[in-house]
Amino acid sequence: MDDFGTGYASLATLKTFPLSKLKIDRGFVRDILADPHDAAIVRAVLDIGRSLDLAVVAEGIETPAQQASLVAMGCRCGQGYLYGRAVGADEIARRLTRAETRQAEPASRRPASPDGPAGPADRRAPPLPSGRPESAKPTG
């Protein structure tokens, strides 16, 4: 369920529909460090997700401090500009092809990069523990 905690995404929906994932709306993540109410809501959604055996994804992670706070709360998956901007399907296909080609080459034949062994991606924040990449499509 996208943007849980806003609009029509109510607690009754958790009981009515067969869900596998909750997404915490970016509005709660944005002020998680400054607003204790937002932090409490995020903790509550994480607890609900764990209790119902649902994956919980935090949307809108933009800073390492937000990521650290979410990890400390037990969040295992997130998405946001900290990890990269949304890209179209064509760009995703190009990146996957490039990564597959790079993995197929022996390490000794790969060109050295001033950004590190994997290129500019070395500068990006690591994914949340046990997280997996979410869709690059913006969710609203």
Task: Describe this structure as you would to a colleague.
With 140 residues, this protein is mainly α. It has a domain at 11-84. The protein contains five helices and three strands, in the order H-E-H-H-E-H-E-H. A three-stranded parallel sheet has the order 1-2-3. Strand 2, helix 4 (64-72) and strand 3 form a beta-alpha-beta unit. The two termini are 12 Å apart.
Biggest sheet layout? 3 strands, parallel
Could you say which structural class the secondary elements and strand pairing correspond to? mainly alpha
Portion in helices: 25-40%
Spatial gap, N to C terminus: 12 Å
**Strand-residue fraction?**
5-15%
Helix run count: 5
Beta strands, count: 3
Task: Give, in order, the helices and strands.
Answer: HEHHEHEH
Spatial shape: extended
Low-confidence stretches: 114-125, 129-140
Average residue-wise pLDDT: 78
Short structural description:
The protein is mainly alpha-helical.
What attributes characterize this protein structure?
single chain, 140 residues, mainly alpha, three-stranded parallel sheet, 5 helices, disordered C terminus
Topology:
Blueprint: H1 11-16, E1 21-24, H2 26-30, H3 36-51, E2 55-58, H4 64-72, E3 77-78, H5 89-104
Parallel strand pairs: 1-2, 2-3
